[in-house]
Every structure is written in structure tokens, then in C-alpha cells.
Amino acid sequence: MAAVRRPVCSGRPRRDRLRGGHVRTVRVTGAEFDVRDEGEGDAVLLVAGGGASGRVWDLHQVPALRAAGFRVLTFDRRPLRNTQAAPDPRTAAVELLYVLAELDLPRCRAVGVSAGAEVVQELMLARPGLVTGAVLMATRGRGDLSGRAMADAERELAAAGVRLPPRYAAWQRAVLNLSPATWRREDELLDWLDLFEAAERAGTAPVPVPADGEPADRLAALGRVTVPVLVLGFEHDLIVPPWLCREVAAALPSARYAEIADCGHYGYLERPAEVNSALLEFLTGAP
What are the AB hydrolase-1 domain coordinates in residue numbering (predicted)? Predict the structure, then answer.
């Protein structure tokens, strides 16, 4: 794992004109984090999936958490070098530890999705006591054939320097991330396709290149995590199938598993009411 030193920049606080929250920029070796901090109460850190902006939480999860009386922290990570390579979960967790120390946040609840959920898992392992309760959505604790095949394909595509046409890239993204239930609702599907295509044309939907090597098997290590955890699987998830989520829940001593029906990898966006209900029920009961 690459070494990560303490931040060299303590941050530049400013107002977020769009949401009224505070934004602070913290630099660690190789990356800058723009952290948005809003609301009061117990802190909840939201960690998005690989390549996704922290603003992906704004439409549904941030308003629900703020309305429930939580302080909400989201962030965007910007590499300081011209690279598409995503940090592995343990490296990303070490970076976040320094960011949270710079923010003087000794304890928080944490919510992660996909690669972000794997980062939350590593936070709990690296610094016991920091995360007092966690929600892990679409997570995994080991590599699998499907994940390896997708990672190999994405690395090969990046190495070839190929950029898919926006309309095709939007269709592919919809196929991989949305559920059959959404595909049956054509008006809703059209909205998703338009959104994905617009993001592709604007260049705001980069696909991070997966880190080289086989993901480590962390299931045994997760047995050391003793805080309450809710693991959420999404019924039609092709990226992280629900059985991988159930493995994580089984490995965690104080976890329970729940599955959200009729959604794919973007379940927290496809079924926000159901996801938020499970999220808030758990977080309001966690210490």
C-alpha cells in the first residue's frame, strides 16, 4: 500500500453557495479533498463509489439526514497528478483518516456505497472507535470472477485510449446500473438515459481505472469489527451481486443484512424512499 503522509494544507474554509454549507479543502499526499459540512448534530460521513462525486448524495440522502437532525459530511477527491487510477480501499481509507483528523472529527457514523463501502470497512479496521455505526451498500469483502472480468475490461479500454460515444456509453451505464423494473418504466428510463448522456457529453462521468491486482480477501479481517453495521444489497445489482453483500454481513459480528427490491447498483438513487427508510431507522438507533 502506498504511504500517505499527514496533510500539508489545513484547508481553506468557504461557503457553499449552492447549499449553504461549509466547504473545506484538505490536501494529502497526491490528492485534495473538498469536504462539504452542513447541519448540526451527530456527524454522518457519506462515501460515494469510485469516480462518483460526493454530490451524488445531494438529491435524496443529504436532505433526509439533515431533516433527521444529523450533521452531514460529503467530499470530492481530486488527484494532484494526471491519473485515472483509483486508489485501493486501504489507501483511500488512510487518506480519509488524515482528512477527518484535520477536521477534528474523532467519531462519526459512516455510510458508503460500492467502492465507498469498502473504504468504510477499511476505516473501521484501521481506526477502531472512529466509526460508531456504519451502513454498507453494495459492498464486497473479496474479489470474484465477475468483478475481475469487469476490472480487466476497464483497464484494457483505458489502455487503448478508447472513449465510447456518449449515447452508447449512456446506454451501457443504464444496462449495468439500473434494474429491470426501471427499464419497464419507459418515461423514467428516458430520464436516466438523458441524464447519463448529458454527463458523458459534459465529461463529468469519468470511469476510474481499477487498481492493478486482485482485491484482497477481507472477510476474515472484518471479524474484528464490533460496531453495529447495516449491510444493504440491491436485488438486481450486476456490479456487486447481493450474495457478496450477504458474505460481508455474515463476516461482521454485529451486522444485519437487508435487501432492497427492484433496483440495481444505483439502488440508493432508484429506490431512495426505501433506502432512506432503512438508513434512518438504523442510524437513529446506532450509538
Answer: 44-277
